[in-house]
Write a structure and sequence with these properties.
It is a single chain. Helices cover about 20% and strands about 25% of the residues. The protein is built from twelve helices and 32 strands. With about 675 residues, it is α/β, with parallel strands linked by helices. Helix 7 crosses helix 9.
Length: about 675
């Protein structure tokens, strides 16, 4: 039996109250006036008779009532027991660390041998479950007494590229305890890395009665060097303009010189030496790199001089291409917005897009498929054929940026949003300002100070099914996005001519244009590096699509079946290496995946921390459900409270009886 609130048991000192009532308060004398005591002999009267308890049954009832009341508030409980436990069987959790660090030397083989030893030592009444935690915890078997099934699962396990988490281990133990309704004997097979422990020690809390047995495959750290990170441009648009910066980390107590090599398409390009301080970091830069056109797998290596060469390289991807063409459409005699837009787009060292302009009449017969995005400036009735072509272009993955002006009434082309007629300027002749910004959107993440932009005239657009990204102070939407097919349409409810607003001459304009065009041209979220265990978004558009996606993983393995290629929304990047993603609309991407570099630090948890973790299973709570905060064990406080009530009734009856006898004498 245990107590959920054992601190309240200190209240048992209150049992002294009945003692005081029955012993110290029973000898009472009534003072009487007397003339003189000088003729009386001084004697000492014995008080033993006064220190004897009277009404012993009543005293016992009162003391018992106080004790039961204290026990009730301490909330006693009996832990859950399962059928297996009732017959002497154990519930065993086999927690095997298959993280990236377990690839070092023979760590994983030792862990598997230790796990097999525990399996072979199981009694017939024991049941066990194999759980791996080199990344997300995986239940590799059901709770079973079949030792051959458990042994086969252990033998079939290989180290992965993910990172381990002891918080996930504790959560798995709590879950198994709740489902089995008994205390769990947990065997942990790991290299006990310090980086696997959570920042909050409370996350390691074990359920009451859980016994944690640690099978550490190592007891001390090893020196190690690793390529911790690489910063490189995702895309390069001209020759010899790229710069690659690599960070080398040392987990050693001595300074060392490492040779760092840059490889592009598996060919060595340049090697540089770098001095890495003990327990510190050093950076090395490769400037003026040139890569062939297309997607290029790249790598930074260091010379292997430690016992763990698996982290001596770092993968990344770089794409070489010419600036993608983009089209700016406007009315015949109005190119003011084009000048502002082009200036903002070109305000970078390597512009990702080459902007072309044309009137609506000139673009009526143009092919739009080659453009990264199309801008419609103040459309006021574009040719019907052009709108049909734009609609097909967006449905097949194209992007459209619609900028509304005074003549844009009725509806927004392609997006099919309603635009109200009439003057939309403030009634007092002043201006509106931005009151709400959706900073989670890629087009607005780094653009700030929208509240200082003045909007003298904006068109009133009914958002309908569109997502509102910017709103004015009067509640009207200013920037909206709507997904159509595989593409996207962004609508700005004010012109870019520096007349309806001062946005084109405001500092926020350049980052806004660059981020918006990057989002429309699918360059804003393109990243060459991912951590093992991350997820890749196969369909960045908000709209569900059945367009197939072909994915080839490391070792040229095809990762998605035909049905999965149309239904899957995300792709788990579990293995180290390169993932080739090809979409039906022609988009081709290369994702590089590296293990979490926290796994490169082989510092082990101190024995004191491990012991504290094990002691959390000897806590005061019963078996609890971590997900819903369930009650602990079979709680008895209700029955104890009923017993206290019964004792109180008996005490009252007996006390009244003694009072009646005393008054009758």
């Amino acid at each position: 039996m245990g107590f959920l609130a054992p601190g309240i048991l200190a209240g048992l000192i209150a049992i002294g109250l009945p003692v005081y009532l029955h012993l110290l308060r029973q000898h009472k004398t009534t003072p009487r006036p007397f003339s003189s005591l000088m003729f009386f002999e001084r004697r000492v009267q014995s008080s033993i008779r006064h220190r004897r308890l009277k009404y012993r049954v009543l005293f016992a009832l009162r003391a018992l009532f106080v004790a039961l009341l204290i026990f009730a508030f301490a909330r006693p409980y009996l832990p859950f027991t399962s059928v297996a436990a009732a017959h002497g069987g154990r519930v065993i959790a086999l927690l095997l660390d298959d993280s990236f660090s377990m690839r070092q030397d023979n760590r994983f083989q030792r862990a598997k041998q230790d796990a097999l030893s525990v399996v072979n030592g199981m009694r017939p009444s024991d049941r066990a479950q194999l759980i791996s935690f080199g990344g997300p915890t995986r239940l590799l078997t059901n709770l079973t007494a079949d030792r051959s099934t458990l042994a086969a699962a252990v033998n079939g396990l290989e180290p992965a590229d993910g990172a381990s988490s002891y918080a996930e281990v504790a959560r798995a133990i709590r879950s198994l305890t709740q489902s089995s309704k008994t205390a769990v004997e947990a065997h942990l097979f790991s290299d006990m890395q310090k980086t696997s422990a959570p920042a909050n020690f409370a996350d390691l809390k074990l359920p009451d009665g859980a016994q944690l047995v640690v099978h550490a495959v190592v007891d001390s750290a090893i020196p190690n060097f690793a390529v911790e990170n690489v910063i490189a441009p995702r895309r390069i648009f001209s020759a010899k303009t790229g710069t690659v910066q690599a960070t080398i980390v040392s987990y050693s107590d001595k300074d060392a010189t490492r040779r760092v090599t840059l490889l592009i398409n598996h060919h060595s390009i340049e090697t540089k030496p770098v001095v890495v301080p003990a327990g510190g970091r050093a950076t090395v830069e490769f400037t003026g790199i040139d890569v062939p056109y297309g997607l290029n797998p790249c790598e930074v290596d260091i010379d292997s001089a430690d016992a763990f060469p698996e982290d001596d390289h770092f993968y990344f991807a770089v794409e070489r291409s010419d600036p993608a063409p983009a089209l700016f459409l406007h009315e015949q005699n109005d190119n003011r917005g084009f000048v502002y837009f082009q200036t903002a787009l070109a305000a970078v060292n390597q512009p990702a897009f080459s902007l072309q302009n044309a009137s609506y009449a000139q673009a009526a017969s143009s092919s739009l498929d080659r453009y990264a995005f199309v801008v419609l400036s103040e459309p006021a009735g574009i040719p019907h054929g052009l709108e049909d072509a734009l609609h097909r272009y967006v449905e097949h993955g194209g992007s459209l940026f619609v900028v509304l002006g005074p003549a844009s009434t009725g509806r927004v082309p392609v997006a099919d949003l309603v635009v109200a007629e009439g003057n939309s300027s403030p009634r007092d002749g002043g201006f509106n300002f931005v009151a709400r910004v959706d900073s989670t959107h890629p087009a607005l993440r780094s653009s700030t100070h929208w509240d200082s932009v003045r909007f003298y005239r904006t068109e009133s657009v009914q958002p309908g099914a569109a997502r509102v990204l910017l709103s004015l102070d009067d509640g009207r939407p200013l920037l909206l996005e709507r997904a159509i097919g595989e593409g996207r349409v962004i609508v700005l409810a004010s012109a870019l001519n520096n007349i309806e607003n001062d946005l084109p001459v405001h500092p926020v304009f350049i980052p806004f244009v660059q981020q918006t065009t990057g989002y429309l041209g699918h360059t804003e979220s393109a990243t060459g590096n991912y951590v093992a265990g991350a997820f890749y978004d196969l369909h960045p558009s908000d709209t569900q699509t059945d367009a197939p996606v072909e994915v080839t993983g490391p070792h040229n393995a095809r990762l998605l079946s035909l049905s999965e290629s149309t239904r899957a929304r995300t792709l788990p990047l579990e293995q180290e290496g390169f993932y080739d993603i090809r979409r039906q609309n022609g988009r081709h991407e290369l994702a590089a995946v590296n293990p979490d570099r926290r796994e490169s630090d082989f510092t082990v948890l101190p024995p004191q921390t491990i012991q504290l973790w094990r002691n959390t299973g000897n806590g005061n709570r019963g078996v609890e459900n971590d997900s819903d905060g369930g009650r602990g064990g079979n709680e008895l406080w209700w029955w104890v409270l009923l017993a206290a009530l019964a004792v109180a009734v008996a005490e009252s009856v007996l006390g009244n009886r003694h009072l009646d006898l005393k008054e009758g004498t």
